[in-house]
């Protein structure tokens, strides 16, 4: 007896939604499916007593329904005694968590529903009824003579609820008779609601017409207004549920009106009708706004007026002079330099009284204590005006510019920018241009430099003397951006070969996201991600476990390196994940069998040509934990290492496998004329044992007596073997 696939699939999808599929047991999934707890609604109603019922069902009923294989998969340790089957404590925790998540999901679903559409239960329904009753009472107290306005859709919903209640109460009555009576009552009530709504909307439209006529024709007499209204056509209104269409009596345009729920009751919103009427009364849109009266400029108090002093004998300017836009109010010529008047600033009189001045000895020198009024605004005010004019003339910044400015504000104060060096370069250029001797020397040096550069380029492209500096990199970006800025199509952008190689290195080291960020911040200055991937596809691709010895020889010859290398090896942890490499038609990520001759994995075993090959690899091999890499280091200072081979490993190999690999690499290098000076590795015991074997340290006990008489024997020994470590 297998559970129904659709029920089990439904429960598995629920576990995937809650991210519980990794630790939820399979037997518990089958048990819940057998008992009907495969939906979120059923699990939300799961109680503590239901768990005991599940165990009783598994103890008594389920053994008679399952086959022997199904029993073994389901019961596990309880297979011999199914009568004592129990859900273990850890699985109980998982089941409780699943039930809790289902309850939260159902609760969130109900809370997201519209409160008017979902049925209310318990206390929430009581609170809703109290609020609706209080709202209706407040509405009647506030609008005692108003007619209840209700939409047709809401009235139809109320009538359907009443009909359902009546049908339950009159169970003995025939169903057809009740339905016919209910339909007749519903139709009559809905027609009445439509009529009331149409009359209500017509009254509102008439009020709009009266208001417009008063303003248009300045008619205040009530009789004249009624006469004008009678000459107009009665507005036609058509109500459809919560929407009403009002036909204009002038142009025949249909305007929409909506029935919405207000604070106390439902009401009709006729803003569209009002807006349409205004188009026929255009002179009502231009309202006569009162102009601001200009006052005397001397009555306007500003901070500037407190700092500007006027002479006492200067007459006050008229309002017309103040309003004259051609006069420069901020000019220093219009600012006086005399003492402050009492009208400008109310201060005490600082001049001493006349009798007091007569009693002072004339021989006594009295310090000058008169207030010296200083014009503080003659320069600062002009600078302020110039700053305002400068800000107004500048274009408004975009959002991207503002975001860039905010990021700059978050940087450290001492953070240097690329643009900080532009001024320094310009100053150096100016100094060179101004000094003839410097200009001549730099011209000769530059010509000599370019001549040597061209010679080096023709002799050897990969010599160390051609190493680019960071300034060359920035110059290349600047030149590429300036050239590509004139091109409209992005596909027409062109970049130098050296810049492409450097960008490819950045892509491999930093990753796709970091490189895309650089491209977005330096538009048209760096190649796009598609250009980098196209360049990467042109490089040689070797298969897993394949030794690239011929490529190593080409690498050394192109750079004029000696054919002597030192080989190192190491392994690093990787993510256990299989992948298909379309370039080599291989399924990588698995550990394959080692060759008895070379010690490296057989590269032909991971090639896939059919679905059967993929299944065979997955069934017979395990996922790799590490990546094993062999690097060849040229014996030149500053030279980059070359990757000989790499393959997947699970760290299960012996010292004999290490010896086989070393001997194979040594012989392959010898075939291509390359000398392997030695092998290096970390402190792995298997590699150390291989080093001990290949250096013949175990034979030191059989050495001759002269070598044994060494003072450092057996801790220090010297051998003259070409491939020793």
TrEMBL record:
It comes from Pyrocoelia pectoralis. Residues 315-343 are annotated as: Disordered. It comes from the Eukaryota. This is Uncharacterized protein. Residues 320-334 have a biased composition (Low complexity).
